[in-house]
Write a structure and sequence with these properties.
mainly alpha; 5 helices
Length: 129
């Protein structure tokens, strides 16, 4: 994997547990915390990080393919990631030890981490005139 992509994946992967801790603290403050919720958050976060890593690998390979093959390849890989996410949600619904809301919070963790990381970077980035 490219060094820059690898660093980005690592940064997001390290940010997800921080997001999870903040989410658990917020849930404790609003009295919605439970063990199934915690397990759901962890489960969803693991799936989200897996999907993010798969996305990075997909895009890195697609860059080196011809346009038609790249489109087909990324489409198939998208369906695989979507299936993984759907399976995680179905498992969460069927398993009494997982809370569906906790799983959903975990699944959005990578998006939130990327958004916050981008927001912080834009605040500290030097403005060019």
């Amino acid at each position: 994997m490219d060094v820059k992509v690898s660093k980005e994946v690592k940064a997001v992967t390290l940010g997800v547990p921080i997001f999870d801790i903040v989410a658990v603290i917020v849930l404790m403050l609003i009295s919605k915390f439970s063990m199934p919720m915690l397990v759901g958050i962890i489960f969803g976060s693991v799936i989200a990080v897996l999907n993010f890593r798969l996305l990075a690998l997909t895009l890195e390979k697609a860059v080196n393919l011809p346009p038609g093959k790249a489109q087909a390849y990324t489409g198939v890989r998208y369906m695989i990631r979507l299936t993984i996410t759907a399976a995680a949600l179905i498992v969460s619904v069927k398993n009494p030890n997982l809370h569906i809301i906790g799983t959903a919070i975990g699944l959005i963790s990578t998006q939130v981490v990327i958004f916050i990381k981008t927001l912080i970077a834009s605040k500290f980035k030097r403005k060019e005139v």
